[in-house]
Design a protein that fits this description.
alpha+beta; FAD/NAD(P)-binding domain; 2 domains; 9-stranded mixed beta sheet; 6-stranded mixed beta sheet; binds flavin-adenine dinucleotide; FAD binding; FAD/NAD-bd_sf; FAD-bd; oxidoreductase
Length: 409
């Protein structure tokens, strides 16, 4: 069977991990990415152990390590206040922090070895074009010029708040969102020894949460979240210093104090939890944040987006090899396989969003009680991390993927 021409909207983790699985298995893919390169807004970097293992088996993780684009063996720790470490249900997870631009660029490099792959940077998808109810093309804009991209199948991976949901006739369910997060990034290459060795989440009560995370290239990410206008807080440096600095570990504080100025890289992230009730329409499938926007709570969004692509590639490539149609029944099977994990984690994120609004004293009591319950329940309590199997059967090991050309059928 002739491989269909797949158009992927969005070259983020969902788009590029899917592109690699399809392209390395012979499917022609065109990716449309609105930014001029992968150094775009900063996004999640903590890969959970299950995704790291899949990348290890495919040879991707060792390439990331060799290039200095990943920090292995990073634990996510939770604190109530500055010093009290608390446990949440589930096994202790050690993952890896991976530079998102680095990962995306590596996947692009690997895909580019195949003649049936194309990525158009600087190309914004404006709308879906439907004929007889089926998406047959998308309207694009590149360098101010409007055009269209045709294809046999469209996979929308363009992240949170995807406007294509509406133009494809999909309905969005929104869940509660509490506070926004001010994300700051510091270059600590002059003091790498003070960088944390884990990703630490500190809950200070009444919605104040501060996260510290090491990042490849001796960077430090700090996320400061509390109810209120964080755009205004970012511009009021004395006030930001007053609120942020006391929450920092002593070793980090003087360095952040020195570097926190109007040049500090920053981004305000609207914390959202939502999902579309149906992930598909004729000719189009939504994956990753475009299908279900995640809050940063629990470091889940990146991992869920990647696991979506493992399941999607399994179904799409199985169907192609068996000569079965890529129709809505197939898309629904992809959604059905992914939905339970998404629902469970979004419910957990919504609960966590409510929990952090409690005063500090209440958080102490809650975590003391949780500790007792966890001890009594032993290993039976399930964690918030992704535990559902999403084994990627088409994440081609590099030695094979590099030499495969259009060969599906
Ligand atoms: C600051 C921050 C920190 C986070 N921390 C974590 C974490 O530690 N762990 C974790 O698991 N998750 C984390 N998340 C969430 C995680 O980053 C996202 O869930 C994940 O990136 C989703 O991947 P995606 O490919 O679905 O979407 P995205 O990463 O958003 O990628 C979408 C891509 O589509 C492109 N695009 C958008 N619109 C268009 C258009 N109209 N036309 C063409 N291209 C378009 C965008 O430029 C982008 O490249 C964090 C998110 C943020 C913002």
């Amino acid at each position: 069977m002739k491989a269909p021409h797949v158009v992927i909207v969005g070259g983020g983790p969902a788009g590029m991990v899917l592109a690699w699985q399809l392209v390395s298995n012979g499917v022609p893919v065109r990716v449309l990415e609105r930014h001029p390169d992968f150094t775009r807004e900063f996004r999640g970097e903590l890969l959970q152990a299950s995704v790291v293992e899949a990348f290890e088996r495919a040879g991707l993780f060792s390439m990331l390590l060799e290039r200095g684009l990943a920090l292995p063996d990073i634990e996510r720790r939770m604190f109530v206040g500055k010093h009290r470490v608390v446990r949440v249900p589930g096994p202790r997870e050690r993952g890896a922090v991976v530079s998102q631009p680095g990962l995306l660029a590596l996947l692009h490099e690997l895909c580019s070895r195949h003649p049936h792959y194309q990525l158009d940077f600087g190309t914004t998808v404006l709308d879906a074009i439907r004929e007889d109810g089926r998406v047959v093309a998308v309207k694009t804009r590149c360098n101010g010029v409007e055009g269209r991209a045709d294809g046999d199948l469209f996979i929308v991976c363009n992240g949170r708040n995807s406007h294509l949901r509406k133009s494809c006739g999909l309905e969005t369910q929104e869940f509660e969102s509490t506070a926004d997060a001010l994300w700051l990034r510091f270059d600590l290459s002059d003091a790498p020894q003070v960088l944390p060795e884990s990703l630490d989440v500190h809950m200070f009560g009444k919605g104040l949460v501060v996260v510290f995370q090491p990042s490849p290239g001796h960077r430090l990410h700090v996320a400061y979240s509390e109810p209120g206008d964080l755009n205004r807080l970012r511009k009021d440096l004395p006030e930001l210093r007053k609120r942020l600095l006391p929450t920092l570990p002593e070793a980090l504080r003087p360095h952040v104090e020195r570097k926190l100025d109007e040049h500090t890289e920053w981004q305000v992230l609207k914390i959202l939890v939502d999902r579309v009730s149906r992930w598909h329409a004729p000719g189009v499938l939504f994956l990753g944040d475009a299908a279900h926007t995640m809050s940063p709570s629990g470091g889940q969004g990146l991992n869920l987006a990647i696991r979506d692509t493992f399941v999607a590639a399994n179904h799409l490539l199985d169907a192609l090899r068996a000569g079965r149609p890529l129709d809505e029944a197939l898309f629904q099977r992809i959604q059905d396989e992914r939905q339970p994990e998404i629902d469970r984690i979004q419910a957990g994120q919504t609960r966590a969003g409510q929990m952090v609004l409690k005063p500090l004293g209440v958080l102490h009591v809650m975590f003391t009680l949780l500790g007792v319950v966890m001890k009594l329940a032993g290993k039976k309590m399930e964690g918030a991390g992704g535990v559902l199997p999403a084994e990627p059967r088409y994440l081609t090991p590099l030695s094979r993927g590099a030499s495969t050309t259009a060969a599906t059928g």
